[in-house]
Sequence to fold (329 residues):
Amino acid sequence: MATLPVDGYRVDGDRRASAPLPQLFRRLEHPGDIGAGTWIGQWAYGLAVDGNAVGWITETDGFGFPVGVRWLSRADWSWDDYSKQWMVFGQPVPADRIVHSPWIVPPGKKLGLSPLEHFREFWNAGLSAQEYSDVARGGGIPPAHLKNSQKKLDAEESAAVQARAVRSFASGKPFVTGNDWDLALTTIPPNQAQFLETLQLTANQTAAIFGIDPREIGGTGAAGSITYSNDESRSLNRANNMRPYLVRFESLVSRILPERQFVRLNVDATIRTDIKTRTEVIGAKLADGRMSVDEARALEDEEPLPNGQGKFYNVPAPKAEPVNRGETP
Fold:
């Protein structure tokens, strides 16, 4: 999200029209400020990690609309359910000086749950699987069966040999003792195959928690699921994953901007098509008048045509009306 371009719009009658970015975003690009990309990234971090992006309005314009919002870390703010009071750096702050964007809000609550909190039980299952892979802990199915083919051991002798074997296995060194010993591995060593399987499981759970495709973070897709055919399909999939976050961000900004002003994060900027597809799409837009030649050249980082030759739009010729053969013209 932090890499997406921000486009400004205004409502003009029944349609939307492009407009300069609101002052809130223009100020972020001033020398010494953090920039719009970092500002959006801080908002997304608060939402994804804490379940609440909380901003402190540091400056307003003459009409009371925010032109400066500082996103706070979780240690810097708090909310008191009893007094219905926001606290920033330990001091009470009026609600109209706070910008709050929650993730999933339980009924009757003010603060949102983070994606991790919402899926805590699934996360704990993944951690339990990781604990299984710890040979030294001795949990889960016994990873090996060590037996003496010549002698029957009593409980005390078995415990002593077991303790020595566990210490040896945990150190990664061979276990050597006596004679006529057989080592039978009952499973693939957990620190190899099982650990890799655990990583795959946790990646899939993490993807489910944050609403993304597990293949993007090293997980596996569902059996029989489609695969990316090209970079464009991968980009479209990522844009779809970002939708819940984009909607929340754009709705939040629209609430604090002056009426009829809003912004959109340009998701199309992340979609990269191959040369053949891009040429076909641009050609179709030129043919039906949706794009001028100069606009098409700008997409390819080319200069406009001289003397304004590329500013005109093609107007397709009207189609001839069909002739009713049953009537006399």
Remarks:
- The CA atoms of residues 52 and 305 lie 49 Å apart.
